[in-house]
Amino acid sequence: MPLSLSAPGAVRALLTSAEAVLFDFNGTLSLDEDLMGRLYAEAAFEVCGFELSAEEYRDRFVGLSDPDICAALAGGDDVLFARVLDHLCEGYLQEIRRMPRIPAAHVALVRDLVASGTKVAVVTGTLRRLLEPALEDSGLAALLSATVCSDDVERGKPDPEGFLRGAELLGVPAATTVVVEDSLAGVAAARAAGMPCVLVGPLAADGPAADHSAGVHPLGELAALAV
């Protein structure tokens, strides 16, 4: 049954009472969906020869894995797939070196959860080669017990494989694991895995989705609350 937690304190309590918390990365821990959308739009135009609007990126692709998005843009062409992927990786790593996208408040939230005894992992559809530099630079790498990337699963969100793999790596049951997500594909994956899910980011501002499991808040608000 969906939960309806509107107070940041209630959402924080949900996270700290869990055995484990699985964070999505792009758009959740890292405020980079604008960057991802821009890079994919550039690749669509420069590599594949068509325009990808911000609205189409949001509606079709947010929450899907990087390989799945690249494959969709390339239309089954392996050469185009490789070029789109190269454009994404080169552009993303260059941009996060220039302007890191993980707020200090998000790092503080993870640090507080770990200090309270909660196991924390990242489950993301991005590539490990993009995730690890961002985690290292922000200090998150030292706090996490596990990471699951698109490299580690056969099926991306909305399939629950990644979240189930994350819980397995942490040695915790799905029922006591909470997911934090910013996309409907991620919410669907969490529900399919049998895990409560906190929705954050722009979708949260539009009000609760019919099938998400928990309260909706900008993630940074939760970091300001005491454990």
UniProtKB/TrEMBL annotation:
SUPFAM superfamilies: HAD-like. Keywords: Magnesium, Metal-binding. One of its GO terms (molecular function) is metal ion binding. It holds the Pfam family Hydrolase. Belongs to the HAD-like hydrolase superfamily. CbbY/CbbZ/Gph/YieH family. Gene3D superfamilies: HAD superfamily/HAD-like (3.40.50.1000), Putative phosphatase, domain 2 (1.10.150.240). This is Beta-phosphoglucomutase. It comes from the Bacteria. Its cofactor is Mg(2+).
